[in-house]
Amino acid sequence: MDANIINLFKISKHIVFLTGAGVSTPSGIPDYRSKNGLYHRRKKQKRSAEWYLSHDCLMHHPKTFHKFMVKYMYHPQAKPNVIHNVQAKLTRMGKATIITQNVDNLYHLAHADPQRLIEFHGNIYDCECMKCHRKVDWRQYVKSPVHQADGGLIRPNLVLYGESINQKKFKRSMNVMLNADLIVIVSTAMKVEPFADLIKYHQPNVPIIAINKQPLHFSYNVGLIMIREDAVKFFSQLALLN
């Protein structure tokens, strides 16, 4: 690992990790947009994956929504990998905050500090009855989308297509970005808005590292230290420094 990169991680006190689906693919969870991703695999179907993950599908076709969620989104056998573990350790040390697009609960399993973890798109293992608003165990949801207590529809806590990001969560993410002294983009193409817009909220001269096999394309000028290598390799090396 480059000595300058090592030094940045050592001296920085407010690291922000912006992470995407590629963080969890080494744990056996498919991503969305790659050749083998969920969206690509669904192209031959009558409906797109985006439709199945939409507010419209949830409300008007709840059984179809539930079937898709259980088949494609839940991976309870998945375990955190070195990327999750190193980032989670840095949150426990008080050095980092994670803002993730992932909804798979793996940062919690890696024991990230909950106060330093922002699940931007929610967490599918956090379920709620839409009728009584009580929390429901995710294992009950996997069995049935109907709440046995009152017949209400259960939904997992994730932002669906056709829904908006919680504004408190967005403002919190924005403030974290403004206070960062090092920003690290990990395994995401930064294509999904408004998550991609978070990069706008950084102080001038704050270094931005991107660890991604593919180049990133922003609609505005962003000075990046681009590291086009496998994130598992990068964080395995970083783990040896701590």
UniProtKB/TrEMBL annotation:
Gene3D superfamilies: SIR2/SIRT2 'Small Domain, TPP-binding domain. It comes from the Bacteria. InterPro entries: DHS-like_NAD/FAD-binding_dom, NAD-dep_sirtuin_deacylases, Sirtuin, Sirtuin_cat_small_dom_sf, Ssirtuin_cat_dom. Its EC number is 2.3.1.286. Residues 1-242 form the Deacetylase sirtuin-type domain. PROSITE patterns: SIRTUIN (PS50305). It holds the Pfam family SIR2. GO terms for molecular function: histone deacetylase activity, NAD-dependent; NAD+ binding. Keywords: NAD, Transferase. PANTHER family: NAD-DEPENDENT PROTEIN DEACYLASE, NAD-DEPENDENT PROTEIN DEACYLASE SIRTUIN-5, MITOCHONDRIAL-RELATED. This is protein acetyllysine N-acetyltransferase.
